[in-house]
Amino acid sequence: MFPLRSCRAVSLSLLLFLLATLPPVMAASLPPPEGDVLLRVTGNIEHPNVGDELHLDREMLMSLSPRVIETSTPWTEGVGRFEGPLLRAVLEAAGAQGEHVRVRALNEYEFEVPVVDFHDYDVILAMTRDGEPIAVRDLGPMFVLYPFDEHPELLNETIRHRSVWHVGALHVP
What pTM does this model have? Predict the structure, then answer.
């Protein structure tokens, strides 16, 4: 048996570990963005910061569980090192309540993506490639990126359509 003092120390250590692994920005505390708005999240959300929408700038987005995916894509040459927030973290920050998300591009192209994709795979909003911001002429400022090399089964027409480029908004119906 462990002494009671040891159990308390283990419990405290476990609690501190769990707190340290929480996302760095809690959704309800997101202030309005200070920089240029890159993404608007609308619809069925619980944590707006500007009217009934969640507006996010580059810094805010990169604070939401940023991930690096090294992968090739159907639209780029070779393997790239892409970085951006996990889409599930963006939806959590918004307090999104829905089974689908309509991803809207700057040119008004839209495609509906099931939220389960963002939990089954580490799908990101790619904001940089090889350390550089992705320009609008090169799929940016953000695009939905699935980990293609890690999951070759994702290289299909359905997922290609869900990989929206030039993302500017997410709508949760």
Answer: 0.82
